[in-house]
């Protein structure tokens, strides 16, 4: 468009030059020439372009009437002058303006792109907030269900949430030195350690209830000094990176004597879905845990009791013995139990034992056993061992069965062990003695056993008693007291 504009303006100049007006005076011609140059400058400004060769020729022709002998160089020199208040025609200024315009357009484009990115980011943030809102609603529903199931309030959960977001320091009781005879407080050491952050697939456990059991006395012989004492606990998952074990899940863990621990979840056992709300969680360490299952399989599988038979149980007021006697009664057996205090004897009679006596106060254990069952015993569930068992064996009936569950009477012995049962009685009476560990039964049979125990409990056919000691710092004292027989029922430490 620029050449056409120049030609048009040049045509106007020629027409004006050849008009009938008298020639202008030199000064007037100079003024007119200046006006024509200004007009040309305005054309350059309007078209935003530089003059082509054809445009320069047209310009020279338009100046012919005044013979100005203007060359392209002279015209360029004019066009490069700095503009005054009345004119604007500098190519340098035009170029600068174009550069400024391009820069402004570039900035505007960048600003638009930036706004576009911000809009996209804002969109993503809105979508993220919606997703989080949906997730939070789902999590809140889960928390409400958990609170209803566990009876925990919002304050407890908020404390739990705060703990899970910080580094956790775990307290643990370790075996400082191996036991020499009966355990003493100095054999244990309380240590504190900071747990590392969770890895994918791991969970952080917080102990609620911890168990102390007779087997720990024997197992400690194989434990290295400085290691955490072994044992089961009921724990709550307070932080999780395992989708199968969300925060708040209650599990039974073999984490030992520690307040907090990290697990990959493989050995954790969730509580049964049918766990009654009215049943304490601590029963997962007693009647519905290892002791209850030991009693179940020992009396039903090892002894194989039948209705009408006579069953003898020692340490009958303990976590295992009390369940053994009650299951035997369910199966129609006559049950005789022994314990080491009058309070325990009263409890055994309360839960249905036919005969119970304090072996520590009788004049003769042999005579007391004969008096309790003159015809002898079909099944003997042994938790004590030692001299007690040596006294019982001769009073077993032919083809009698003996389930050897423990030998707590000799666990703390340091010298020579007492003589064992008379082999002659075992041979001629064709007795069957079998030791066992509850981990032998797994899978479906274990699930069935647990369902049976819970069913009998719900029907009021099995009762329980717990000896609960508060405070994690009392773990060693609870353990030593249990070995001495201070407990009635299952000994539990509440963390």
Automatic annotation (TrEMBL):
Reactions catalysed, as given in the entry: 4-hydroxynonanal + NADP(+) = (E)-4-hydroxynon-2-enal + NADPH + H(+); 13,14-dihydro-15-oxo-prostaglandin F1alpha + NADP(+) = 15-oxoprostaglandin F1alpha + NADPH + H(+); 13,14-dihydro-15-oxo-PGF2alpha + NADP(+) = 15-oxoprostaglandin F2alpha + NADPH + H(+); (5S,12S)-dihydroxy-(6E,10E,12E,14Z)-eicosatetraenoate + NADP(+) = 12-oxo-(5S)-hydroxy-(6E,8E,10E,14Z)-eicosatetraenoate + NADPH + H(+)
Biased composition, class Basic and acidic residues, residue ranges: 1-28
GO annotation, cellular component aspect: cytoplasm
Keyword Zinc: no
Family: Belongs to the NADP-dependent oxidoreductase L4BD family.
Subunit-structure text: Monomer or homodimer.
Name of protein: Prostaglandin reductase 1
Organism, as annotated: Fukomys damarensis
Lineage: Eukaryota, Metazoa, Chordata, Craniata, Vertebrata
């Amino acid at each position: 468009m620029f050449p056409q504009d120049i030609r048009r303006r040049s045509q106007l100049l020629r027409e004006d030059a050849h008009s009938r007006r008298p020639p202008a005076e030199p000064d007037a011609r100079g003024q007119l020439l200046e006006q024509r140059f200004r007009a040309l400058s305005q054309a350059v400004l309007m078209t935003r372009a530089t003059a082509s060769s054809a445009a320069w020729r047209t310009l020279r022709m338009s100046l012919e009437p005044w013979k100005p002998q203007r060359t392209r160089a002279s015209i360029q020199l004019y066009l490069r002058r700095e503009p005054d208040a009345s004119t604007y025609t500098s190519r340098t200024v035009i170029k600068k303006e174009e550069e400024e315009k391009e820069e402004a357009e570039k900035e505007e484009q960048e600003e638009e792109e930036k706004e576009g990115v911000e809009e996209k980011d804002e969109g993503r943030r809105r979508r993220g907030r919606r997703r989080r809102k949906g997730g939070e609603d789902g999590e809140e529903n889960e928390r409400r269900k958990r609170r209803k199931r566990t009876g925990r309030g919002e304050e407890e959960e908020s404390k739990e949430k705060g703990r899970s977001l910080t580094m956790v320091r775990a307290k643990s009781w370790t075996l400082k030195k191996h036991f020499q005879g009966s355990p003493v407080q100095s054999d244990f050491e309380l240590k504190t350690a900071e747990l590392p952050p969770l890895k994918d697939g791991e969970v952080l456990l917080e102990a609620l209830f911890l168990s102390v059991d007779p087997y720990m006395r024997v197992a400690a012989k194989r434990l290295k000094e400085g290691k955490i004492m072994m044992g089961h606990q009921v724990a709550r998952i307070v932080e999780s990176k395992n989708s199968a074990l969300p925060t708040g899940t209650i599990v039974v863990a073999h984490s030992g004597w520690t307040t907090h621990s990290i697990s990959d979840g493989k050995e954790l056992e969730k509580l049964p879905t049918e766990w009654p709300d009215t049943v304490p969680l601590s029963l997962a360490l007693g009647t519905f845990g290892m002791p209850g299952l030991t009693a179940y399989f020992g009396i039903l599988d090892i002894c194989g009791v039948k209705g009408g038979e006579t069953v003898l149980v020692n340490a009958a007021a303990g976590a295992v013995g009390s369940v053994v006697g009650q299951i035997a009664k369910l199966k129609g057996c006559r049950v005789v139990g022994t314990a080491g205090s009058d309070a325990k004897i009263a409890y055994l009679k309360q839960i249905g034992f036919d005969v119970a006596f304090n072996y520590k106060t009788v004049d003769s254990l042999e005579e007391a056993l004969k008096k309790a069952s003159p015809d002898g015993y079909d099944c003997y569930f042994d938790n004590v061992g030692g001299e007690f068992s040596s006294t019982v064996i001769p009073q077993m009936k032919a083809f009698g069965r003996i389930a050897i569950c423990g030998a707590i009477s000799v666990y703390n012995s340091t010298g020579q062990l007492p003589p064992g049962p008379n082999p002659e009685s075992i041979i001629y009476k064709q007795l069957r003695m079998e030791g066992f560990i509850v981990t032998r039964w797994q899978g479906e049979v274990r699930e069935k056993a647990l369902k049976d125990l819970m069913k009998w409990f719900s029907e009021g056919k099995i009762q329980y008693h717990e000896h609960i000691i508060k405070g994690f710092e009392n773990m060693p004292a609870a353990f030593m007291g249990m070995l001495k027989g201070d407990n009635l029922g299952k000994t539990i430490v509440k963390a």
